[in-house]
Amino acid sequence: MLIDHEAREECIGPDGSVTHVKRVIAMISGRWKLPILFRLFAEPSIRTLQLRRDIPGISQKVLTQHLRELEDDHLIIRTDYGEQPPHVEYSLSERGRRLMPVLMAARFFSQDHPS
C-alpha cells in the first residue's frame, strides 16, 4: 500500500500535526501547569497567594517559574496594579481560554477510558 505523500506531510512533516501537538504539550508540561490553568479556568482572576493556597505542595519559586512560562506562551495574563504592597493578578488569556475545551476533552476522554 502506498502512503499518500501529502497526508504524510500533514501528519509528520515539519509543519504537521505532530509538530503542533508537541508544541501544545510542551506548553502545558510541568507538574503544576495544569493545576494552575484549571484554577484560572474556575476563577476569572486570582492573586499569586491565592494560587499557592489553592495548589497544595507548590513552592513559591516553582509557582513563579510556571506562571512566567505560561505567560511567555501567552496562555495567561499577568496584571500588575503597581501598588504597594504589590498587587498582581493572573487570568487566562484568550489563547488560554481556547485551550480549555481541549483540556476538558482530555479529561472526559480519561474518564471514559479508565486505566
TrEMBL record:
<feature type="domain" description="HTH hxlR-type">
    <location>
        <begin position="11"/>
        <end position="115"/>
    </location>
</feature>
<keyword id="KW-0238">DNA-binding</keyword>
<dbReference type="Pfam" id="PF01638">
    <property type="entry name" value="HxlR"/>
</dbReference>
<keyword id="KW-0804">Transcription</keyword>
<dbReference type="InterPro" id="IPR036388">
    <property type="entry name" value="WH-like_DNA-bd_sf"/>
</dbReference>
<keyword id="KW-0805">Transcription regulation</keyword>
<dbReference type="InterPro" id="IPR036390">
    <property type="entry name" value="WH_DNA-bd_sf"/>
</dbReference>
<protein>
    <submittedName>
        <fullName>ArsR family transcriptional regulator</fullName>
    </submittedName>
</protein>
<dbReference type="InterPro" id="IPR002577">
    <property type="entry name" value="HTH_HxlR"/>
</dbReference>
<dbReference type="GO" id="GO:0003677">
    <property type="term" value="F:DNA binding"/>
</dbReference>
